[in-house]
Amino acid sequence: MARLKDIAEHVGVSISTVSRVIKNDTSRNVHQETRRKIWEAVKELGYVPNENARSLVSNVLSKNSKRTHKVGWVANLKSAEVNPYFSNIYGGVYNALTEAGYTFVNVYKEELQNETTLVKTIHESGIEGLILVEQLDDETLNYITKYVPVVGIDFFYTDKDMSVIDYDRISAVKKAVQYLVAKGHTEIGFIGGGIGENYKDFQAEKRYRGYRYAMEEAGLLINPKWVVNTCWKLDSSYEGMNKIIANGGHTNLPSAMVCASDLLAIAAMRAVVAHKLSVPDDIAFIGIDNIELSKYSNPPLTTIAIPQTELGEMAAKTLIDHIEKRTVIQVKIQLPNQLIIRDSTN
Q: Per the database record, which ranges form the HTH lacI-type domain (predicted)?
């Protein structure tokens, strides 16, 4: 395993310079280009900062090594606090880890994207594995997976060589559209959000693709005026539905709307009521998620139930299996979804 001396020789600097950079010692200035080369060497040579961390990396499960039973959760904590979908996943992870005797710590995405804190987090914090909800760049992900097992939740990691727990977004929305078509609806709009930078890439988002595929299979045309990319903002859902109604003049309106989340659906239904129209008589609504609030919206929301708590529990159990070497196979698990019929559809 690489030593400070190896990195120093690789870069062509002194061992003390390498040490200052890795420890983020700012008492003496090191040129930015030199810092970049040192961190590249750290990653390339697989340097681990201290002997305790070296032991953990080389054999975390040997009888002689000290277990920490600590797992990191990499997610947008604001989303977990305000969005029931993510808070339910968080709860599932927490419950499964606690039951198995593991502790649960938050790891911020920014800590993994900074070269200094990345190395410290992976090698000196004592974490034995990571559950990823936030999207990490490939370079960071590749470095992390060299040293600790990871499990991804959600679609960011579907095509990566790692274990992923998710649900089939395309099939979930197709199920929603197919239900509406079976009820006689032919003029169906869609409210959702994109992926990528600022969530603007709408065409590649799987829930929108599910809507598009289902409409094509049913032989129905998509009216672009009834399609709203909210970038996952509730205000944009409300405003987008307002615009659909205003432009339609209460006469040229969709008979139903499929929404990529329950929260977006509830915001859009509020706009319908504000225009003194009726849900579902004028416009029916169906969401995705089945958050607790959907049972208490007015009217109660028809939705596709996603097993959110189970997603978290399965992710935690899969990670523990990797940590404790019960499995070395990277698994891709998609949990099922279910139609829940309530009063927002007719």
A: 2-58
Q: In this structure, what token pair is assigned to residue 103?
A: 């502790």
Q: Which has the closest alpha carbon to 149: 70, 48, 42, 47?
A: 70
Q: How many residues does the chain have?
A: 346
175, 167 contact by CB (below 8 A): no
Class of CATH domain 1-47: mainly alpha
Name the token pair of 162. 């790692």
Domain ranges, ordered by start, for the chain = 1-47, 51-167+311-335, 169-306
CATH superfamily of 169-306: Response regulator (3.40.50.2300)
Same fold, 51-167+311-335 and 169-306: yes
pTM of the model: 0.81
Whether omega before 49 lies within 30 degrees of 0, making that bond cis, reads no
Our CA angle for 29, 35, 36, nearest 5°, is: 150
Helices (H), 100-227: 109-113, 115-124, 138-145, 169-182, 206-217
Identity at 39, one-letter amino acid code: W
Per-residue pLDDT tens digits of the chain, which is 346 residues long: 677 788 888 888 888 788 777 776 667 778 878 887 887 888 788 777 665 555 555 554 444 457 899 999 998 776 666 788 988 999 999 999 999 999 989 999 988 988 878 888 888 788 999 999 988 999 899 989 989 999 999 778 888 889 999 999 999 999 999 999 999 999 999 999 998 878 888 999 999 999 999 999 999 999 999 999 999 999 999 999 999 999 987 789 999 999 999 999 999 999 999 999 999 999 999 999 999 999 999 999 999 999 999 999 999 999 999 999 998 899 999 999 999 999 999 8
Q: Are 1 and 54 in contact (CB under 8 A)?
A: yes
CATH fold of the domain at 51-167+311-335: Rossmann fold (3.40.50)
Tokens of 211: 């809507």
Least Cα distance to 285 among 251, 241, 250 occurs for: 241
Q: With beta carbons less than 8 A apart as the criterion, state whether 174 and 342 touch.
A: no
